[in-house]
Structures are given as C-alpha cells and as structure tokens.
Amino acid sequence: MTTATHQIHLTLPNGDVRTVDRGVTALEVAASIGPRLAKDAIGAELDGQVLDLRQPLSESGAFRLFTTKSPEAGDFIRHSAEHVLADAVKRLWPEVEIDVGRKDHSEKFQYDFRFPRAFTPEDLERIETKMGEILAEDSVFERREVSREEARELFAEMGENLKIERLADIPEDATITVYQHGRFLDLCRGPHVQRASQIGAVKLLEASGVYFKGDETNEMLQRIYGTAFGSSKELDQYLEQIEQARARDHRRLGQELDLFSFNPAAPATPFFHPKGTVLYNQLVELVRERYRACGYGEVLTPQILDVELWKRSGHYDHYRDSMFFTELMTEGDERQYAVKPMNCPTHCLIFGTRLRSYRDLPIRYADFGRLHRYERSGVTSGLMRVRSFCQDDAHIFCTEEQIEDEVLGVVREILGIYAALGFEGIEIEISTRPEKAIGTTETWDHAEAALKAALERQGIEYSINEGDGAFYGPKIDFQVEDALGRSWQLGTVQLDYQMPARFELSFVGADGQEHTPVMIHRAMLGSLERFIGVLIEHTGGVFPLWLAPVQAVVLPVSEKFRDYADEVLGKLAAAGLRAELDDRNEKLGYKIREAQVQKVPYMLVVGGREAEAGEVSVRRRAGDDLGALPVADFVARAQDLIARRSQDL
C-alpha cells in the first residue's frame, strides 16, 4: 500500500490537484489525464522548472504539461532538432566528432563539430535532406541517467573525445544524462520531445567557424545553425522575419550607408566614419540636453588607472577576465595599470576630493569616457558587442531620503528619451541579488525594496528578474521592443550601497555627523555603440530628420543649374542643415534613386523654373512629391521638425 510520504500533489492549471506516487514521470501523469494528452505532450513544468516528460517527479507543486501548440513548445522542438542535426552529420560523415549544442533554444539551435573544413551551402542542403529522412523515421527520444564512469567509457568507445572533455566540466554532484533517438546518442541535460515527428519543420540557416569553448587559443571547430517549429507555417513566418532582420542588419546598413567599419588592426572596435559620427554626436547632444535640464555635471576621467583602484572597487575580482592590463608605465614604476572598463570608481574619487555637506546632495556626475572590455572573438558581433565603447554613464550621490525621487527622475528621463527616439513596447524589470554579490543580505534586501517602492509610488509596472543584479547592487533594467518585435535591454538604474563604503565616502549630515552617501549608477542609452546598432535595425537606417547624417541632397537637373544648386546648398548650410550636392553627370532619376538608397530624408531638385522663382522642388525619401517651395520655407519646415525632434517629414 502506498503511504502519504511516498506521494506528491500536483496542482493543475485549472486548480485541480492530482495525488500521484513520488517518482512518477510527467508522461505518466499525462497518460492518467487522457490518452490524447499523453500522445500530444512534449514537455512539462513543475513550480516554474521545465522538465523532460521522462524525468521522475519528486516534489509537489504547480504542474503544467506542454503540447506542440503551447507557446513554450519551441524550446523543446529546437533542442530536439539539434540532436537530429548532429545525427544527420554523423550519418553523412561518420568520422566527425561532436562538441555541444546551444543553451538557449528560444529561436535557434546549433551544434559544433570537429570537421576538417568549413561546411559549404551544398553540405547544408545534404544535411537538411538527411534530417528530413530522420524525422520520417519517427524515433522515440529516450532519457537515461548514467554514472560519470559509464559516460566516459561510452564516449571513449564512440571516439567522441570532445564529449569526454566536456564531461569534466559537469559538477561532481550533478546528475549525468544521455539521450538517444534511433542510433544516435549524446550527452545532454534535455528536455526533449517524445518523438521525432513532433518536430514539424526544420531549416538550416548558416555555418561558421568557432573556437572550442569560445577560446581563440583552442582549435577551430565548425558550427551549424538552424531552427525548427511545430509546423511549416510557423517556420515560414519565422523565415520571413529573418529576411526582414537581414535587410535591417546594422552591419550591412552600416557599410551601405557609410556609417562605420571594422579593421583587424583594432579587433571588435568600430571606426565611425563622418556620417556615423554625426549620428553618434546627435545622440550625445540629446543626452547632454537632459544633463543640462536635470543638473548633471559632466566630468572627464583618466583612461588608465592603477589596478589597486579596481581591487578596491570590487571590479578586479568580478571582471578581471574582461579587463585590459598595461605594461609598466615608466622605468622603476612597479605598479600595474588597467584600461578603464567602467567609470564608477573614478567618480567616487572625484566625490572624495573635498568635504561634502548634506546640502550639496544630490551630486550628479556624467561621463562620456571611453571604456574598454575584453570580449572573446567568438561573442563579438558588429556594434552589439565590442571591445571599445562609450556609455552615456552617470552616477548620483544622494542621501537615503533622496533615493526615491532620484530613481523616479531617472526613470522618467529614460522613458522620455525612448519616446523621442520612436521606441514603444517598453518593459521594466528589477534584477535582484546575483550569486556572486558583495555586501550583506540585509543591505541587498533594503536596496531592492527601495527600487520597488520608487516604481510603485509612480504606479509603474515591473517584473522581477531573479539573480541578475550587478555584483554591488540591484538594478532596474529597461527592455525595449524594436520594429521587428525583438527585445533589447538598454537603459539601467542601479542602487549601490557598497562602493561608497569601499571608497570611504562621506558627507556631513544635518546632525553634524558623517554619513555614507548612496550611489545610483545610471545609463539611459547604455553603450552608444550598441544603441546605434539597435537603432539602425529598428529604423532600417531610415532615421528621423534630426538624426539623419545627411538631411537633404540638392539635385541640379543639369550642369547649367550648378550655380543655383551651390546657392541653395549655401543657404541650407547657413541654416545649420546637413546637406550635400549631387552634381554628377547622371540622369535625375538615377540620382533620386541613389539618394533614396542612402535614405536621405529630402531630395531638392533644382532646374530653370526653380532657379527663376528662388525655389526647390521637394521630394521625400518615400517617393512622394511636396511640390515647389521657396528655399526659406523649406528651411523653416526642416528647422521646425528638427527642433521638435519629430519622427515625421
């Protein structure tokens, strides 16, 4: 007879509670509910933890089952398709060795292979065809727990040396599992679908070379990316989104619009061209306007500082693998120096240069200083992840009583700046204490409560992102949705009780005693480089007039109207507009199309009629014609749109 201690209680989404024997699998629970559910199920969740259907259940809690129609189905399907990919490659090239797949299956799957050459497009076609054959076999995915020694012997017999190396990375107390479908077996934590036919449609996307474990000192492996869905319709929708994203790829548009480039002389570090620098500086000026309105003092701080500073701040312990270090600066100077990865310690040094009173607070320092962080070549990606960048960085030193007002002020500024840039769908989350954090639990609880209180006071909705705070304090992160529905984490507000204490900062309070200030770290755009990458993809390079590197191009109908075109160009320049003249010996239609490809907001056509009347014929980049306008009227129109930072033309 089963006793209560050997039973668990599963609360279903409709509120029903099912009492089952401890150790029963999620698939068995599905079967007890109904045969159709057992057939359609692909995975489960217990108290928020995603589980494989074959995984034994040992605890009571809220329980859900997923089918191919569930929003969560994609992760199971793509993870399983990943194994089908590796199976296909092994069937085509039995000598290949398999490394590992992807941790995040929300959009793609991937596998890395020890393969003697780069995979070609023809290879991908063969592999995809073979994957289709494997799916048609409809093999069942089986989960098996093994000992470490069993796993080592198993993969040694298979000749999978990379797997044996990966086995060493698994913690000693972790459960080791292998999954098998048909003849293919691999080391994997799961979860996976029940059977191959639940993977409705697959598509291989691309191949690239990657370093083993992401370390460029290791050998080069070959990676294949793909995606999978429960149906061909879902796959087609995704591929359409991919095409849209490819058309908006900031790396491609950056080259086509002559905004920036990269060079091996400075790996993963962008070179901004004149047009890109205009865009960069316009964003800086937008932020500087907010600084002037909100009482920030802009500072300049050194690029290279003694390593002891970073040890004092705590960055050395947490970020030294991402820092650049210098050789000795001068003969006899035995100190080690580091290139600045963050601004906050330097602002603490400025605060500490004199005695402060509570009447001086809040003190707000802003810094556009260039930062350098070492990113491995395997994770750098255009402007999205670089080794040299600038943040619209600021730090506020305030009293405990000022925290809510200062946090809310920053939140309002961030939301306002996103609205000015045309972003919508903004979600806010509070990221809490990470595993590797400095300071006491009590201080962290207090800081997290302060951030929550500030948002709740303003009625701002937020979610909790457990364990993703900075090592020195919790933070408010802003997730911004772009035109393709993708989410980007941009701005952040971080509350820090640790660093002011580490730097022994103080102010004299109203009671005449010394107190430690609270430090608020704040960035609105975040990394300007990354933000520009996001902005390019959000707009597709179609910037509003105030941001456009070239706001208007003057197009003379023929050479004989060059003098009038020069006159118009001079008036535009005198009015502060960024304009160019296209006087090439080309047909007008060709020059108009070129300007549209360059996404110039206005094309000003000038010929005999316009020269006689002192006008320009105005065309917008979308192709519509505004007709002839006096030059002064066009200038006034443009200046008004720029002053309002309008999204319209």
Explain what you see.
With 649 residues, the chain is an alpha+beta fold. It folds into four domains: 4-67, Ubiquitin-like (UB roll) (Roll); 75-246, Threonyl-tRNA Synthetase, Chain A, domain 2; 271-539, Bira Bifunctional Protein, Domain 2 (BirA Bifunctional Protein, domain 2, 2-Layer Sandwich); 552-643, 3-Layer(aba) Sandwich (Rossmann fold). Strands 15, 18, 19, 20, 21, 22, 23, 24 and 27 form a nine-stranded mixed beta sheet that branches. A hairpin with a 5-residue loop joins β1 (7-11) and β2. α5 (148-158) runs antiparallel to α6. It is globular, with a radius of gyration of 30 Å.
Q: Say what the CATH topology of the largest domain is.
A: BirA Bifunctional Protein, domain 2
- Report the top-level CATH class of the largest domain: Alpha Beta
What share of the residues does DSSP label as strand, in percent?
25-35%
Please tell me how large the radius of gyration is: 30 Å
End-to-end distance, in Å?
78 Å
Rough outline? globular
CATH architecture of the largest domain: 2-Layer Sandwich
**Low-pLDDT segments, ≥5 res:** none
Summarize the structure.
The chain has 20 helices and 32 strands.
Task: Provide the fold topology.
Layout (H helix, E strand, L loop, with lengths): L6 E5 L5 E5 L4 H8 L1 H6 E6 L2 E3 L9 E7 L5 H20 L4 E2 L10 E6 L6 H17 L3 E6 L1 H11 L2 H7 L8 E6 L2 E4 L13 E11 L8 E10 L2 H17 L1 H7 L3 E2 L9 E2 L1 H21 L2 E2 L5 E3 H7 L1 H5 L17 E3 L4 H8 L11 E5 L2 E3 L15 E11 L4 H18 L3 E8 L9 H17 L5 E3 L9 E7 L5 E10 L1 H5 L4 E2 L5 E2 L2 E10 H12 L12 E5 L5 H13 L4 E3 L6 H10 L4 E5 L1 H6 L1 E6 L4 E6 H13 L6
Parallel strand pairs: 1-5, 15-18, 21-22, 28-29, 28-30
Antiparallel strand pairs: 1-2, 3-4, 3-5, 6-7, 7-12, 8-9, 9-10, 11-12, 13-14, 16-17, 18-20, 19-20, 20-27, 21-23, 23-24, 24-27, 25-26, 30-31, 31-32
Helix pairs in contact: 3-4, 5-6, 8-16, 13-14
